[in-house]
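Predict structure. Chain length: 134.
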Amino acid sequence: MADELMLEIVTPEKMAFSGNVEDVTIPGTEGEFGVLRGHEAFLTSVDIGQLVFTKNNKKTHYAVNTGYAEVTANKVTVLIETAERSDYIDKNRARRAKENAEARLEKIAKDSDEFEKARAALMRAIVRLNVAEK
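Prediction complete.
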């Protein structure tokens, strides 16, 4: 289709997705942004959050970790640490990860180096739980 955009979601382990989509919304570190075919080219960083794309009028949701996104007029390449499609997320495992991260945060001083790691783990678990519900 002429209005479609090539999307590639790449992690260190695999190509999580590759195909033509109608649009994509990505959680950038400066805020969420959407891309359609013909978008101005840019490079940006990706934050922990939900990546959503539309293909054949159907939305697909991924829980993603940090990385980078390169946008050109007809292609978006997302290079990220992890990407999990909503229907592949183990909700029980995500709930346990959230509980563990909350417990760790209660025991760590806010000025500790470990605090930021535990906070990021909590954010990832919350995103995974939210995306799993999609």
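Summary: Helices lie at 91-107, 113-132.
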